[in-house]
Structures are given as C-alpha cells and as structure tokens.
Amino acid sequence: MTGDSRGILYPASLPRFSRLPSPDRISSLVRWFWIAEWDIAPGHTSRQQVISFPASNLTVEPAFVGFAGPTSRRSTRDLTGRGWTVGALLRPAAVPHFTAAPAAHRDAYGPVDFPDVHAAVVRAMTGSEDASGRHLRAVEAFTSWFVENVPTPGAEGLRANMMADLIDTDSTIVRLDDVAGRLGVSARTAQRLAVRYVGLSPAAMIRRRRIQEASERLRSDPDSDIATIAAHFGYSDQAHLANDFRTVLGLTPGAYRNASSDHPPLE
C-alpha cells in the first residue's frame, strides 16, 4: 500500500492502494483521488473495511461509474479476482452537481450515467504503462472530465469546503458551536451547510474524525491505554469513545485493537 491509511481499518490486508493529490484546477471540487488494484487468488476473498471520510465519492470501475453517498457506519467490500477502482473524494462544493439531497444517498452506492469519464478512465487503467503511469493518466482523465462538466463552486460551496476542512484538521473543534464560531456563522447556518453539501450533521463529521484518529492510534500503538486515547481525542471518558466505536464499527476499542493485530498482509 502507498499513501495515508487513515480511515482504513486493516491496512495490512489492503491491496495496492494509493491516494493522489487533486490538481490545483479542481482542488475546490476533489480532495484527492484514490486508486485500488487487486489480484486475488482463485477461490479466495479479501474483505476490505473502512471508516470513510464524511464525504461522497465518485468512482470509476471497469463496468460502471458509481456514486457513493456519505456513510454513517463502517463500510465493507469483498474483493475477488482481478479488478480496480479509481475514486474521487468529493469536496462538499462538488456534491450539489450530483445530488440535491446527499443524505438520501447515505450508506448507498449505485451506478450513475457518465459514459465519457468511464471511457477515459478505463482507457488509462488498461494501458500498457506501469502502475504509476496508469494512475497518473487516470487522474488526468478524471480531472479533465471535472473541468469540463462540474461548475466552479460559488461562495456558499467554498464555505462548505472550509467547514469540512476545519472539522477534519482541527482537533480543538469538538462541538457544533466550535464549527460555527470558527466560520463566523450561526449554528443553524453551519447545520444547513452540512445538510446541503455533505449529508451528515457537523456533529457526525466531528465524530468521524475522532474515530478515524483513535482507531489509527489503537492500531499503530497497541500498548497505549484506551482511556488515555479517549482523553487525547477529546472524549470526556473512555465510555463515550467505546460507545462511538460500537455505533460506527460494531466493535469496542479493545476488540478492534485485537482484530487489527490478527489481519495478515494480503497475498
């Protein structure tokens, strides 16, 4: 695997995976591109589990283009055979181009009719170059499609991007009022931005960041104290961290840490 593994629950068992930066000309629309490629031995299955970022994704697979709305829980996909996926992690400002109600797509993934981007990305991913060359060509093709088809966001969309960036990068933001205060808007306005551009509440977005970071710490530092981790990521006590883990992952922090040590590398 290459690239940041945040949000990936069991990176040791992940197939080839890369996150590539979004080109400047579409940086207000796409946070980054991600590419997964796998070749699973016949008769075997690789189960991939992630805590997705609080955002929607537009993906290209060999057979179709898919739109994935925001998630409220752990996402699971079973990989078999040989395949690949090229995804664009959408910034909030891009979402209204694909849906007026992102919450209606929560925990859902389905095909959308964008044949031009499908054809261009498939050509890139099935070319004769090595993996790096294929990935660069795929990102270039995807980027050109965004430039030609998705409008430049307005002021409100850019404010929604700012909200998402603040929540995702500032660990001192733990409540809705923190979000609103940093944006210089009312709590109601912050809620409205989240509904229209993300499909999750600001509180759910904050919770996702904290769970991603806490799970990464549990995995990378298996000897760490769970109560200390809870305090470090802004939880009032260990019980609140455990409750979030059970709600989103279906596991306690301790059970997740044990499970992460049991996942072997993908063969």
What gross morphology would you assign? globular
Number of helices: 9
Question: How many individual β-strands?
Answer: 8
The amount of helix comes to 40-55%
Radius of gyration: 19 Å
For the residues shown, what is the average pLDDT? 92
* Major beta sheet summary: 6 strands, antiparallel
Terminus-to-terminus distance: 12 Å
Q: What structural class is derived from the secondary structure elements?
A: alpha+beta
Order of helices and strands: EEEEEEEEHHHHHHHHH
Within the largest sheet, what's the order of strands?
A: 1-2-7-4-5-8
Strand-residue fraction?
Answer: 15-25%
Low-confidence stretches: none
How is this structure best described in words?
- With 267 residues, the protein is α+β, with helices and mostly antiparallel strands.
- The chain is built from nine helices and eight strands.
- A six-stranded antiparallel sheet has the order 1-2-7-4-5-8.
- A hairpin with an 8-residue loop joins β1 and β2 (30-39).
- The model has no long low-confidence stretch (mean pLDDT 92).
